[in-house]
Design goal:
The structure is a homodimer of 184-residue chains. Helix content of chain A is 37%, strand content 26%. Chain A has 5 helices and 7 strands. In chain A, strands 1, 2, 3, 4, 5, 6 and 7 form a 7-stranded mixed β-sheet that branches.
Amino acid sequence: MNIAYLTGNTQKFEEAEHILSSWHLERAAVDLEEIQGDADAIVCHKASEALRLLDKPLIVEDVSMSCSALGGLPGPYIKDFLRKLGDVGLYRVAHACGDTKAQVSCLAAYIEPGCEPKLFEGKLEGTLVEPRGDMRHGTYSWNCIFLPDGMDKTMGEMTMAEHAAVSMRKMALEKLKKYLEERA
Amino acid sequence: MNIAYLTGNTQKFEEAEHILSSWHLERAAVDLEEIQGDADAIVCHKASEALRLLDKPLIVEDVSMSCSALGGLPGPYIKDFLRKLGDVGLYRVAHACGDTKAQVSCLAAYIEPGCEPKLFEGKLEGTLVEPRGDMRHGTYSWNCIFLPDGMDKTMGEMTMAEHAAVSMRKMALEKLKKYLEERA
């Protein structure tokens, strides 16, 4: 079965291709509007919009960062925050508030014609720290300020292999893989 | 000419009706999706969506709060911030960061069939303070933490008449009124 994977990012696509290797993944780059709301509503809306445009089985995903100091925000608005404050600015806000706990999450939605989207989540708990490392994925990245619990390297200090081992995208896509296998 | 004014809030509608008294304003409550993006893009998208549904001249508006400490955010995501942090929580974040300067803005869009939306903005500079007063407009309100520059009362401590005198909605709608008068 062919499945479209919507992303503008080559690395993300390769990660998905590797995990979902039993299916033929096609990379699709479609400009989708993102609505305001919680992470579930945003990714479901993206999936439905993409299905309307492509009319075939597809996967979309969305990344959130929930900071304790901000009552769970920026959440799905993480990209806006990184754009306006930079990673160091976001760390400093959390630090100034005296609470650097954070959670990052990848929510993947699978949808096919005639069906509602199915959601699969991968998440990582950690703390925000002064930026360390230089592995940034994408223009607006939180990798260098996010230290996963129990690790001594930020996501920005990890090699690609170390990164892949703790990837929350991988967790989400492995749940999706299991779902696809079970109904095959 | 009849113009639809989109709001779920009676006070906002009455304020608009008072300012735009030369036109027949009809209150319309339509559930519109709000996209992510900057304030201009969000209000233009709302105006276009509303026009698609109602097919008549109409006004929509959106309120933002730009905090210096957050690099201009929460901006149009102010409602989410108030929902997650409360007004006092938002004040505390700004205070902890050592910068309580803020700007609130009302962006009104006028659109009619076959035309692009026209935007009119009213804004107020001020600072965030510990909540004072109890005049909250709407469930999620920043009135009690916003002290406009040069005033000694927060928006939450003002009487309705005082509030109306400094209203950024009024400023936006008066610009819109002038536009409608000039092309009449």
